[in-house]
TrEMBL record:
Biased composition regions of type Low complexity, renumbered to the chain: 498-510
Domain Aminopeptidase N-like N-terminal positions: 174-234
UniProt cross-references to CDD domains, sorted A to Z: M1_APN_like
GO biological process, any: proteolysis
Protein's name according to its UniProt entry: Aminopeptidase N
Pfam families hit by this protein: Peptidase_M1, Peptidase_M1_N
UniProt similarity note: Belongs to the peptidase M1 family.
Species of origin: Streptomyces cyaneogriseus subsp. noncyanogenus
Length: 510
């Protein structure tokens, strides 16, 4: 995700943040203990469970591993009305389960079947707790079918999930909102394949992640089917329904490119869409092959205030491309930010949400590197400014790899400057420390080794040490978990705490 301004200043947003003591690997340890607690709780009354993510304790559920989701939505043509939906989950149990918890919080459940038989269900917190006729043994395949509605009107004080646009709907599920749309194991730790089917009245076009697998027309409506070829985190699911135009091109080595834009903005969108192939080639020159089966821009007719790296189809507010005040380099650097996430965040997903800096630090890094190489915006100057603000960001949001739990209702949530520019600053420090060639090898090795998987901060530290041929644990620990920003290798003149606080205020994000 990237916050984008509503105003026409064309300036990238700066940040704010607050503090947390360093506790390395604490998240992973908590995760393990919460899983075993969860298994005990499965035989107790219906209660919401989680996998113990430090930042979102109730996200995800223990006891099973989802292999695939089949989501079927029926849209009425009115984006204030709940959609009818059927969610089918194929999973493998990793423990004996008397109850199955799914995350689901914003729709009515009509019925639940487990392996074809009706099952009892109840809501508990933000979980849908299912009780099958008999307990599920460990290590078995199971199919859970939930008939439900999916409400596109956001619950009060809660954002994310469906976003209503001028002509329909799009999704913005990061970090914890996929379960406002469909029942799921809502944590990037459990990635799965997706088949997404959308039925909408004639005049609308529906597009989702992955590749099209057919369209059927009947009785004044059409049903589109899309499939992902790679596993995907629930937070990266995307469904666009609108009066859209779909632009098609071919990218590097035959990669299908598909952009979804409001039909009325088609002409304005074309020149931007035409730049994507070049962005992909540039990213491939840095880190290797694009990891998925397709890519494209989804331009939503809505004042989003952010952009989001939904897998194979990144979401942007159309205003980013239609507002003439934005400078070209700025718009392109945001496009490259979301594209870079396809490697960093999507193909390689965070093991816990405390690993968010691995997503945002890398996306910001390539965003800044592109701006330097293509528009002469000095990376060194940008990092020097980030260094000056870094202590302030750490005090506000916590160190990059131990972000502070966001206050309820805080709009920016965990998406603060400590993980964006602050995360990129860690990568800059690492490149200063190990040199450009080792750093570039590390980046390529990271996205290769963990492709289609999940990985943690500890995995990154381990790989960096392996590639550099020396133990970087102490160096990176200080940069990732320190309350204060360590000295910058090669720049003894850089001083923290010299930023003008007014210059680092974050614009309102939606
Ligand atoms: Zn981002």
């Amino acid at each position: 995700m990237l916050h984008t301004p509503h105003t026409s200043t064309g300036r990238p947003p700066a940040g704010r943040g607050r503090a947390l003591g360093p506790r390395r690997y604490r998240a992973a340890a908590l995760l393990a203990s919460a899983v075993s607690l969860g298994l005990v709780a499965a035989s107790a009354p219906a209660v919401p469970l989680g996998i113990g993510d430090r930042l979102f304790p109730h996200l995800g559920n223990p006891g099973y591993d989802v292999a695939s989701y089949d989501l079927a939505f029926t849209y009425s043509g009115n984006n204030s009305e709940p959609l009818r939906a059927v969610t089918t989950i194929d999973a493998r149990t990793t423990a004996r389960l008397e109850r199955i918890n799914l995350d689901f919080a914003h729709g009515e459940v009509g019925s639940v079947e487990v392996d074809g038989r009706p099952a009892a269900f109840a809501g508990a917190g933000e979980d849908l707790v299912i009780t099958p006729g008999k307990p599920l043994p460990k290590g078995e395949r199971t199919r859970i079918t939930v008939r439900h509605t999916s409400d596109p009107v956001s619950p009060k004080g809660r954002e994310g999930g469906w976003v209503r646009t001028a002509d329909g709907l799009v999704m913005a599920n990061q970090a914890d909102a996929a379960h406002l749309v469909f029942p799921c194991n809502d944590h990037p730790f459990d990635k799965a394949r997706f088949t997404i089917r959308v039925t909408a009245p004639d005049g609308h076009i529906a597009v989702a992640n992955g590749l099209a697998a057919g369209v059927e027309r009947a009785n004044g409506s059409a049903t589109w089917t899309y499939r992902t070829r790679h596993p995907m985190a629930t937070e990266l699911a995307q469904v666009s329904i609108g009066r859209s135009a779909v632009l098609r091109r071919t990218g590097p080595h035959g990669l299908p490119l598909r952009d979804v834009v409001p039909a009325k903005h088609r002409a304005a969108a074309e020149p931007w869409a035409a730049r994507t192939a070049g962005h992909i080639s540039w990213m491939e020159s840095k880190v290797g092959r694009y990891p998925f089966e397709s890519y494209g821009l989804l331009m939503a007719d809505a004042p989003l205030g952010f952009a989001l790296e939904t897998q194979t189809l990144s979401l942007f507010g159309a205003g980013l491309f239609t507002e003439p005040a934005y400078e070209q380099w700025y718009v392109e650097s945001i496009m490259v930010h979301e594209l870079a996430h396809q490697w960093f965040g999507d193909s390689v997903s965070p093991r816990t949400w405390s690993d968010l800096w691995l997503n945002e630090g890398h996306a910001t890094w390539y965003e800044a590197l592109y701006a330097e190489e293509k528009a002469g915006r000095s990376l060194r100057t940008r990092m020097r400014d980030a260094y000056a603000a870094s202590d302030t960001w750490r005090a506000a949001g916590g160190p990059p790899a131990a972000p502070k739990v966001p206050a309820p209702g805080q709009k920016t949530g965990i998406f603060r400057q400590n993980v964006y520019e602050g995360g990129a600053l860690v990568l800059y420090a690492l490149r200063q420390e190990i040199g450009h060639p080792a750093f570039e090898r590390l980046e390529r090795a990271w996205v290769t080794r963990h492709r289609d998987g999940t990985a943690s901060t500890a995995d990154f530290v381990r790989l960096a040490s392996e590639i550099a041929g020396r133990d970087l644990d102490g160096f990176l620990r200080a940069w990732l978990y320190g309350e204060k920003t360590p000295p910058m290798p090669g720049h003894p003149d850089w001083k923290p705490g010299t930023a003008d606080p007014a210059a680092t205020a974050v614009p309102a994000a939606e």
